[in-house]
Amino acid sequence: MATAQRSVPPARGVLQFSIHDRLWKWLLLLPSLLMTTVLFIAPVVWTLYAAFTDLHLFRVGVETEWVGLYNFQKLLGNSSFWRTARNTVVFMLGVVPMQFLIGMVLAVCLDNVTRGLKLFRTWFLMPLMVSPVVVAFVIGRMLFQEDIGPINSLIRWLGFEGIPWLTHPNWAMFTIMVIDVWQWSSFMILMLMAGLQGVPYDLREAASIDGASFWQTFFRITLPLVLPIAATALLIRIIDAFKVVDIIMVLTGGGPGQATESVTLAIYRAGVKGGDLAFGSSQAYFLLLVMVVFGGAFLALTRRTMSQTKD
Amino acid sequence: MKVSTQRRFIRGVSYAILILWSLTLVFPMYWVLITSFKNPVDMSIKATYMPFLDFEPGLHAWRYLFVERLGWFMQPFSNSMIVAFVSSSIALVVGSMAGYALARFDFNGKNNSIVLGFMAQRMFPGALFILAFLVMFRELRLLDTKTALVIVYAAGAIPFIVWVMRDFFEGLPVEIEESALIDGANRLVVIFRIAMPLAAPGLVAVFVLSLIGAWNEYIVALTLTFRDSITIPLFMGMQVSQTGYTEWWNMSAISLVSVIPVVTAGMALEKYITSGLTFGALKG
Predict the structure, then answer these.
(1) B91 Cα to chain A: minimum distance (Å)
(2) Considering the domain boundaries, does residue B52 fall inside one?
(3) Does B158 map to a domain?
(4) Which of A106, A284, B159, B280 sits at 20 to 30 Å (Cα–Cα) from A155?
(5) Structural domains of chain A sorted by starting position, each given as residue range(s) with its CATH number in brackets
(6) Is the CB of A291 inside 8 Å of chain B's CB atoms?
């Protein structure tokens, strides 16, 4: 054995900083750095540049001009853009709290059972694997189909009028929210359950022996302890909700009228379909701004709540 | 005892709610399954719910898909297969190498910042990229190619892989690698023969998650491909807007074929997937 011959094994530091390793560490990191720089930083910078020009996809060979804040002025005075911004915020405010509520209830339920736990957990993973396009088709187009879909059939059987799930502006938005809640509540369940498992069982046991009710234990002990994970899960969902586009595109195409058009769909329409790269880019940066504002406000709120519950 | 009665009650309610939610998740899947066996006549007047009881199941949608129009459907299917597997494999190798480097080497004390820099990319809306990608790949003459999608999806999966794998490698004992290095093994050998096999559970998780992500991605594919290189979600989307109102049975069969591979893989690897999905949050 080679090791036996060495009386003094080299220290860890020596090993890590030998010439070869200094080379290795960069060789290992570089491909990732390179790929993400080219495909992340470059587009982000380019889009910022485009937002201040009059770049157009179909106009080739013409000098690109610097237009300053023109695109942003155009944006702020554009009522159809504000409509899409409103839709996106409404969508986010509709789905995220609902997913959190469902996620919390289901996570607590999972925490209370032992038999069949693995089965439920595995099955709850299913919606996360299914393509949003398929979910939009199956739920939106088939279950909520207005004439012979099972949901309207049930409503009619109960003696009510069928509901215009996709043809009425408000109902269309509702249907899209239902689809997103169906698909992404599972994410909340998994996250919150992972959080609950981190809460020592003894703590809750002790509380219930001391005579605390189920609700007292939940609100006083369990909830504050899962709060950090809940905050992360909520933030991820808020960000994702702002990006919504695929289910809308497949289901309503933004309609009826503009009732369900999201900002991302508007950007796709303006930039990719319409070729107006400059206007699309300014919208994309506006979306980023909205996300930063909401994300920042949310983080500030959770930080305050957490510092309060610590007392 | 009072406590145990209360606990039994809570358990009962818990099971009721869990079963209710399970059924909510089952129903759309049940519906798409039975619809793929329906005939046009079963959907012309009213909804039908139970095969054999209120409609006679037929195989015509499946025959349509696998016999009459196989080529039509196989092209996007194989595009999706190729794009998902190639991009995830590239991302896995490249990303886990970086994860290893960030776990084992010191980058002037900036390791955490580098990892955060990777993760910050997840926050940005895809809308910020698609226009730049469109121009970029147009200049490279790569529009409507699988290569373009492979590049974008691989780059998109890397940050998450770096994030998860860095922690995974940090959790592995460093002594094994050290003794191999002392024995004169090359660093590359140490990485691929010792560290990677030990990190297999983490690698499986991130690989399958990248695979699912690439398989289901929609908006980038919509921007960059339009005919020869369309993927399954795109193909589905086109069919829904063109024929979705009339040919439910065919659409249902296509949905099932496109969903079953990933759902089966994901559910079989439930343990790894759950840990991969919840990983970042648990650490924070």
Answers:
(1) 8
(2) no
(3) yes
(4) A106
(5) 87-257 (1.10.3720.10)
(6) yes
The answer to whether the CB atoms of A32 and B97 lie below 8 A apart is yes
**Residue A311: is its pLDDT beyond 70?**
no
Mean pLDDT of A59-72: 82
Rg value, chain B, Cα: 24
Query: Using the 8-state DSSP alphabet, how is residue B123 labeled?
Result: G
Residue with tokens 């189909």: A145
pLDDT of A310 reads 56
Q: What is the mean pLDDT of chain A?
A: 85
Say which of A149, A182, A246 has its CB closest to residue B219: A246
Taking CB atoms and an 8 Å limit, are B274 and A209 in contact across chains? no
Number of domains in chain B: 1
- Can you give the length of chain A in residues? 311
Nearest Cα of chain A lies from the Cα of B280 at a distance, in angstroms, of 9
B258/A134 CB distance under 8 A: yes
Q: What three-state secondary structure class fits B55?
A: strand
Closest CB to B3: pick one of A118, A194, A208: A208
Cα distance between residue B229 and residue B147, in whole Å: 9
The CA-to-CA distance between both ends of chain B, in Å, stands at 40
Handedness of CA B161, B167, B172, B175 (dihedral sign): positive
Q: Which of B4, B116, B128, B153 to mutate to test the interface with A (most CBs of A within 10 A)?
A: B128
Select the residue from B115, B131, B242 to test the A interface by mutation, using most A Cβ atoms within 10 A. Answer: B131
Contact state of B187 with A271 under an 8 Å Cβ cutoff: no
- Sign of the CA dihedral A249, A252, A255, A261? negative
CA nearest to A141, candidates B230, B28, B263? B28
Residue A86 forms contact with B (CB below 8 Å) = no
Local confidence band at A88 (pLDDT 50, 70, 90 cut-offs): very high
Q: Which of A29, A113, A122 sits opposite B98 (nearest CB)?
A: A29
| Amino acid B242: pLDDT | 67
Here the CATH number for the domain that contains residue B102 is: 1.10.3720.10
Over the stretch A135-167, which tens digit does the pLDDT of each residue have? Answer: 998 898 889 988 888 888 889 889 888 888 988
Q: Where are the alpha helices (DSSP H) in B121-217?
A: 127-139, 146-170, 174-182, 187-189, 196-198, 200-216
pLDDT level of residue A4 (50, 70, 90 thresholds)? very low
User: CB neighbours (10 Å) of residue B13?
Assistant: 13
Q: How many residues does chain B have?
A: 284
Tens of pLDDT, residues B208-259? 999 999 999 999 999 999 988 999 999 988 887 765 556 788 888 989 998 9
Contacts of A214 in chain B (CB under 8 A): 6, 10
Q: With a cut of 0.95, is the ipTM above it? A: no
* Contact yes or no for A43 and B24 at CB 8 A: no
Give the best residue of A41, A111, A134, A226 to mutate against chain B (max B CB count within 10 A): A134
Q: Is residue B25 within 8 Å of A127, Cβ to Cβ? A: yes
Enclosing domain of residue B193: 82-229+266-283
User: Per residue in B160-218, pLDDT tens?
Assistant: 999 889 988 988 888 888 888 888 878 888 888 889 999 998 899 899 999 999 999 99
Q: Which residue has the higher pLDDT, A221 or A233?
A: A233
